Amino acid sequence: MAPLRTPLVVGNWKMNASPTEAVRLTEALLPILTRFPSVERVVCPPFVSLTDVARRLERTDILVGAQDLFWEDSGAWTGEVSGPMLRGLCRYVLVGHSERRAQFGETDETARKRVQAALRNELRPILCVGETLDEREAGVAVEVVTRQVARALEGIESGSINPIVIAYEPVWAIGTGRAASPADANEMAGGVIRPVLASKLGADKAAQIRILYGGSLTASNAASFFSQVDVDGGLVGGASLRPDEFAAIVSAAA
Ligand code: PEP
Q1: What's the CA gap between 206 and 200, in Å, rounded?
Q2: Residue nearest to atom 3 of ligand 1 (CA)
Q3: How far is the CA of 102 from the centre of ligand 1 (A)?
Q4: Could you read off the pLDDT of 215-229 as tens digits, one per residue?
Q5: pTM, whole model, 2 decimals?
Q6: Does the beta carbon of 179 lie inside 6 Å of ligand 1?
Q7: Tens digits of residue pLDDT in 166-218
């Protein structure tokens, strides 16, 4: 019997929306997103809006995520935000997004430390992995994604792994309007990522972990991704800022 994995759709607002606009966006999303209780729905606003958005979503079944966290819990780390600060405010946290890898020097090692910090603080990490266009063209996409997943999960106890989510986001598909093919996304999820998870954690655990696709997901292509057997939902950037389009993506996962 196929494992039961609740579909998950996550909106990454990136560095968009002032605190006032973030609350307005939340108000606009609320009535439409509540129509799809069979899908776990998460929004990831900027840090400065987390409290307001979380407050607005209290007593709803829409969850909040942060876009990053630092691996230490406290101390002299000017500008950083830690797990204990986020815990209680949000349930999920993005880790190793390709924009952070490309612009802010994040590596597999810092992703690993962040995954551990998230788990230690009862946050569910959404580990983002994916190859660049150069890597794809050089024929090393599988190798890159395998390494990213394996390294980020090094040393993690299989008992603590359940809440983790993996987002396969080919870098060349993010914000470009050029999505991967659903079959390629499914092959990366089911043929590459899940076997890496299985080799580390055992097949049963690996079968329970949700793998999302991200990269130019829209209302018109979402259903073709979500109908793939190993794609358990989506990580949505640009389209998550448009309430009707985000809701249509969620509806495709329902
Ligand atoms: C992302 O930033 O994670 C993303 C998938 O962006 P977009 O949907 O805009 O391609």
Answers
A1: 9
A2: 237
A3: 14
A4: 999 999 999 999 999
A5: 0.97
A6: no
A7: 999 999 999 999 999 999 999 999 999 999 999 998 899 999 999 999 999 99
